[in-house]
Amino acid sequence: MIAYADRKIALWHIGVAYTAFLIGTLMGVLQVFVRNDSLALPAWLDYYQVLTAHGVLLALIYTTFFIFAFFITGMSKSLGSFGPKVRLYSWIGLWVTLLGTVMATVLILIGEASVLYTFYAPMQANGFYYVGLALVIVGTWISSFALVGHYLVWRRRNKGQLSPLFAFMTITTIIMWIIACLGVVATVLFQYIPWAFGWTDTINVELSRSLFWYFGHPLVYFWLLPAYIAWYTIVPKLLGVKVFSDSLARLAFVLFILFSIPVGFHHQLTEPGISNFWKFLQVVLTFMVIVPSLMTAFSMFATFEISGRKKGGTGLFGWFKKLPWKDVRFTSIFIAMAFFIPGGAGGIINASFQLNEVVHNTLWIVGHFHITVGTPVAMTFMGLTFWLIPYLTGRRFTKRMQILGFVQIITWSIGMLLMSTAQHVLGLLGAPRRTAYSGYNNHPAALEWFEGIVSNHVTMAIGGSILFLSAMILMYIVIMTMFVSPKAETPEQIVEFPLADSDMSNTPKWLENWWIWIGIAAVLIVVAYAIPLSHMIQHAPPGSKGFITW
Ligand code: HAS
């Protein structure tokens, strides 16, 4: 068990994460019904306000706070208790991130920032909204540096040794996060804030979007990598085996430092201000960032097979039946992985230059992110929640909670399957994203979109409602395991942190030489971005004034 003081910091993070989750999912269910034309919001609540709150609170805030709860617990577990300075900075990080979150959320809820989670210029929010976002980033940096400090102390005490896999992966994620944030910090500080407060009249839209996507794509890996940490370090323990290959796992992670950043243009393939050469180069690099995910898939299949065969599974697929299906901690993560197969394939389609023309700005992309961040990532976090909270509170994860856990993950899977399939199909037919419901004046082509078996209003509404039900079950489990469930008394009742052993004997030391990876990443970023960004600045088109479209 980790120190009480460290547990307290982690629990606060989880508390904030699930408060954001509660509001965010409530906004989600409203949105599904409005988007379906079956609910009219009251005059004081706008669709875009709801959409912004949903995206920000779930995709940015729930994930960030949960990720830091997981990192803090895992780092304290694998490197030892935090010192007083690390604790202090972790608390400061929490409060600064929370302050930014509250500022941004209030401004969304009072209708001053309905700019969606990508806050594209020239839509202009209240200046304090951008200050709130900046504080969120600064807060995460403070928390990150606290964890880096803890890691450095450990390295000083264990000279020449490789760090435990969990710590290595956490530090990789943090390095990627800090390099990625430079883009969004630059645009928020030097473009959005002066523009929103009226210190400058106009904004260079293309530059602001490019700096945003320099950050926006690694942002999705900031969500994904903690899920991968759980897949690599927790799942083998649940299966009763070691990590399949320590060096493969570490290599996959460093590849994310290299390739997750110089690829942001694949979100801007239809934008006219960037020449095809730079878009093509970044598409090629995007195909490189798929490689570590394929390595992860290989590693997971190998882990499953080794475990199943160890338990007596024979034949080509006999091992599959031997997996611990009755353990909700495992089954939740397995389903999360299964969702990432179509989720990742969809990403490859999006990244393919020509195919992007078909899917860009359609509901297909909304379907894509619900089966990437909305299920592989979110459901892995749910699977972690089941044991992480009892581990931190010292309460039991009772049989009843285990059953409810199964109901929760099954309902989430069904809801997501219905809703995201409908979104993919509607997107292919041409239904746009980032808009409220529109029948285009009852144009027959637009009305036809909703006549399919999966793409009709009813399927989407059922999917959205099931998801909301599932979210409420999860909230019940969170509250029970946080405050109500009986305390664990016997050794069998104590919930453990299931961290797998990893054989580091063949792992090359250079994998942990961060300067190599940061150096190569910097070179790739310069190659991919220096010339196109300098063109955007030197040959800047007339800037745009702000628009309030809601
Ligand atoms: Fe994406 C748009 C390309 C991954 C999230 N993406 C988005 C947006 C979000 C998002 C939020 O190239 C919308 C942004 C917006 O609002 O505009 N994405 C990719 C690519 C990948 C990818 C190439 N995306 C993610 C992940 C996300 C995420 C992960 C969140 C966590 N995405 C794009 C592109 C766009 C885009 C374009 C812009 C589209 C546009 O036009 O606007 C890759 O990283 C995917 C690689 C993944 C794989 C899958 C490996 C499979 C594994 C599971 C193994 C399963 C097992 C279980 C072991 C190759 C690891 C076995 C089970 C059995 C049942 C057999």
UniProtKB/TrEMBL annotation:
Note the CDD domains from the entry: ba3-like_Oxidase_I
Methyltransferase in keyword set:
no
- Which spans are transmembrane here? 12-34, 54-76, 88-110, 130-153, 165-193, 213-235, 247-265, 277-301, 330-349, 369-391, 403-422, 458-479, 514-531
The places in or outside the cell where this protein is found are: Membrane
Record Gene3D superfamilies:
Cytochrome c oxidase-like, subunit I domain (1.20.210.10)
Give the Cytochrome oxidase subunit I profile domain ranges: 1-485
Per the record, membrane topology reads: Multi-pass membrane protein
- Coiled-coil regions listed: none
Pfam families attached to this UniProt entry: COX1
The answer, when asked if Membrane is one of the entry's keywords, is yes
Task: Give UniProt keywords alphabetically.
Answer: Electron transport, Heme, Iron, Membrane, Metal-binding, Respiratory chain, Transmembrane, Transmembrane helix, Transport
> Of which family is this protein a member?
Belongs to the heme-copper respiratory oxidase family.
Q: Which PANTHER family match?
A: CYTOCHROME C OXIDASE SUBUNIT 1, CYTOCHROME C OXIDASE SUBUNIT I
Would you tell me the protein name for this molecule?
B(O/a)3-type cytochrome-c oxidase subunit 1
